[in-house]
Amino acid sequence: MKTLIRIGTAAILATGLSLGGTAAQAAGGHGGPELKHPSWTFDGLFGHYNEDQLKRGWEVYSNVCASCHGLEYMHYRNLKGLGYTEDEVEAIAASFEIEDGPDEWGEMFTRPATVVDPIKEPYENDALAKLANGGAVPPNLSVMTRARDHGPDYVYSLMLGYEAGVPEWVHEEDPEFSVPPGKSFNNYFPGYAISMPQQLFPGIMEYSDGTEATPEQMAKDVVTFLQWAAEPELEKRKDLGRYVLVFLIVFTGVLYAYKREIWKNAH
Ligand code: HEC
């Protein structure tokens, strides 16, 4: 019986922890700045997405990132998950021209995208992507926040982690370090020399809801959007997690009462 109660308590702790999200933060592992850790709506036991923020994140993705990065597996209809109406999603899809065909004359043609089309990829193939980006292929972003350790914090820090010159701490680690031509210095990218130039500058875009588009705001919104793309079911998972947690607490309480009942005459 005691063992059962212990198992119950351990399960409660484990469920609580797994819902807790990215509480602990690993040190940067180098002499440079540690990962930034803004507050995320999707963190913790009551993690959720805010639809206004998801829409802003899509605006950042489509205005800034989409010219180089695709969102593999995502279709325009998935954007309904951000809180857009059917009509709005149709209008968003229709604003993109995609290639289709061949037609009856055997020719490829372009047409406006519809909701059932996959979100338009920026490059036809990796070779073209490489040519356009100094030899590096901009990776698919739809699962990026799960593909990297501390994904949301990492992508946020990466977007804000550019430096004009090479900081002193890098030269303390490696006096020979220099940024190769065509690359940029980034505090958080492994090896610090990244083929993606800095993207987020004040004033590069405007939000349709009037929010001021500071680099921090754009980074936070686009990461929230990418987290949603990687885990649209988060809210369902957390709902289930909370249900399991309450169940386990009640169950452990029942076991405890039961134990006392059985042992009450034994003392
Ligand atoms: C001009 C093209 C271009 C644009 C625009 C662009 N990126 Fe990139 N991005 C790249 C390239 C190229 C790489 C690969 C970098 C490398 O391997 O050195 C990359 C890599 C990345 C990575 C992966 C880093 C890693 O750890 O491997 C992330 C995350 C990323 N970009 C996010 C974004 C976001 C978010 C935006 C929009 C705000 C954006 N990018 C806009 C070209 C671009």
TrEMBL record:
<feature type="domain" description="Cytochrome c">
    <location>
        <begin position="52"/>
        <end position="212"/>
    </location>
</feature>
<feature type="signal peptide">
    <location>
        <begin position="1"/>
        <end position="26"/>
    </location>
</feature>
<keyword id="KW-0349">Heme</keyword>
<dbReference type="GO" id="GO:0016020">
    <property type="term" value="C:membrane"/>
</dbReference>
<keyword id="KW-0408">Iron</keyword>
<dbReference type="InterPro" id="IPR002326">
    <property type="entry name" value="Cyt_c1"/>
</dbReference>
<keyword id="KW-0812">Transmembrane</keyword>
<feature type="binding site" description="covalent">
    <location>
        <position position="196"/>
    </location>
    <ligand>
        <name>heme c</name>
    </ligand>
</feature>
<dbReference type="GO" id="GO:0046872">
    <property type="term" value="F:metal ion binding"/>
</dbReference>
<dbReference type="InterPro" id="IPR036909">
    <property type="entry name" value="Cyt_c-like_dom_sf"/>
</dbReference>
<feature type="binding site" description="covalent">
    <location>
        <position position="65"/>
    </location>
    <ligand>
        <name>heme c</name>
    </ligand>
</feature>
<keyword id="KW-0732">Signal</keyword>
<dbReference type="GO" id="GO:0020037">
    <property type="term" value="F:heme binding"/>
</dbReference>
<feature type="binding site" description="covalent">
    <location>
        <position position="68"/>
    </location>
    <ligand>
        <name>heme c</name>
    </ligand>
</feature>
<feature type="binding site" description="covalent">
    <location>
        <position position="69"/>
    </location>
    <ligand>
        <name>heme c</name>
    </ligand>
</feature>
<keyword id="KW-0472">Membrane</keyword>
<dbReference type="Pfam" id="PF02167">
    <property type="entry name" value="Cytochrom_C1"/>
</dbReference>
<keyword id="KW-0479">Metal-binding</keyword>
<feature type="transmembrane region" description="Helical">
    <location>
        <begin position="240"/>
        <end position="258"/>
    </location>
</feature>
<dbReference type="InterPro" id="IPR009056">
    <property type="entry name" value="Cyt_c-like_dom"/>
</dbReference>
<dbReference type="GO" id="GO:0009055">
    <property type="term" value="F:electron transfer activity"/>
</dbReference>
<protein>
    <recommendedName>
        <fullName>Cytochrome c1</fullName>
    </recommendedName>
</protein>
<keyword id="KW-1133">Transmembrane helix</keyword>
